[in-house]
């Protein structure tokens, strides 16, 4: 909450306040906080800043990595192990718990809420989907747009693109030859590039299509997902200690 007073234009800074208001059962405070988030012009979870700080600590006080270290079941170099460790820790620290935000934007949970309430949820979803540098936040944004019932044609196309790129990067890093691409992506993130930007660059370098083909839709359990009427897929692997499932 302190960050919200320092950076009121940063939507990410207001997420904890939604949880505090929900815990207090204060619907008016939730509405006011949603309005403040909706008025923000950026969404910075400070993932890069945290990665840089944690990498400095890891270099000065190296964790006991060795050449037999494994990430996702694959043998990796000490540098890769260190950067993967830093990314995981920074994500767990900086990505907020979105559970109460998603619940606040569910029409079925708030039948008494005004249209302005859900319009603010839609604005927050659009902000996260276009300005956040973290995939978790962009995918949660998809759920906000759906749950609020505010998603329009442009929102659907932006969501399709985000979900496609997320899926394609997942395929890329599973390839045996993708180790270098993953390492370069982590290096770029420590250098100041966002996770999304670094992953998008890796897709271009690997000649993966950055935009979904016409008619492509994400699937859940093998079935196509209706981007306006059914739940968006959300990350399976969420940061440790966070309950971001809608």
Concise synopsis of the structure shown:
This protein has 246 residues and is mainly alpha-helical. It contains eleven helices and four strands, in the order H-H-H-H-E-E-H-H-H-H-H-H-H-E-E. The strands form two sheets. It has a two-stranded antiparallel ribbon with strand order 1-2.
The main β sheet shows up as: 2 strands, antiparallel
Helix content: 55-70%
- Average per-residue pLDDT, rounded, comes to 86
Number of strands: 4
Overall number of structural domains: 1
Spatial separation of the terminal alpha carbons? 22 Å
- Whole-angstrom Rg: 19 Å
Q: What count of helical segments does DSSP give?
A: 11
Strand order of the largest sheet: 1-2
Would you list the SSEs in sequence order as H and E?
HHHHEEHHHHHHHEE
Enumerate the spans where pLDDT stays under 50 for 5 or more consecutive residues. 230-246
Which helices and strands appear, and what pairs or packs with what?
Blueprint: H1 2-6, H2 15-23, H3 27-38, H4 47-60, E1 70-71, E2 74-75, H5 78-94, H6 99-104, H7 115-131, H8 135-148, H9 153-174, H10 179-190, H11 195-205, E3 219-220, E4 223-224
Antiparallel strand pairs: 1-2, 3-4
Helix pairs in contact: 2-3, 3-7, 4-5, 5-10, 7-8, 8-9, 9-11, 10-11
